[in-house]
Amino acid sequence: METIKYTPRGVCSQKMEIDVEDGVIQAVRVQGGCNGNLKGIASLMRGMTVEDAVSRMEGIRCGMKPTSCPDQLAQALKSAR
Predict the structure, then answer these.
(1) Residues 15, 7: contact at Cβ < 8 Å?
(2) In degrees rounded to 5, what are phi and psi of residue 5?
């Protein structure tokens, strides 16, 4: 199993860790940010392929920000490819 450790930029979250095994997301942990929303996103991502997660979350914006926590999770997954 691989653990992706990522420091997000431009969002409230401070640290992201994603466990991936054979291209499938096993667990997501996010420090900081909107706790309830991120717990929901983490739960939805569990069992999803890396490719599917990136295609669904990349480019999502948070208000006027050019990025969001979901977009930063996609960037974390892309950085590990």
Answers:
(1) yes
(2) -110, 130
Fold of 2-79: Enolase-like; domain 1 (3.30.390)
Q: Which amino acid is at 46?
A: R
User: What tens digit of pLDDT does each residue of 12-33 get?
Assistant: 999 999 999 999 999 999 999 9
Per-residue pLDDT, 9: 96
> Are the beta carbons of 53 and 77 closer than 8 angstroms?
yes
Sign of the dihedral defined by the CA atoms of residues 36, 41, 43, 44, in that order: positive
Residue 16 token pair: 């992201």
Closest CA to 4 of 35, 60, 45: 45
Q: What is the Cα–Cα distance from 77 to 6, expressed in whole angstroms?
A: 9
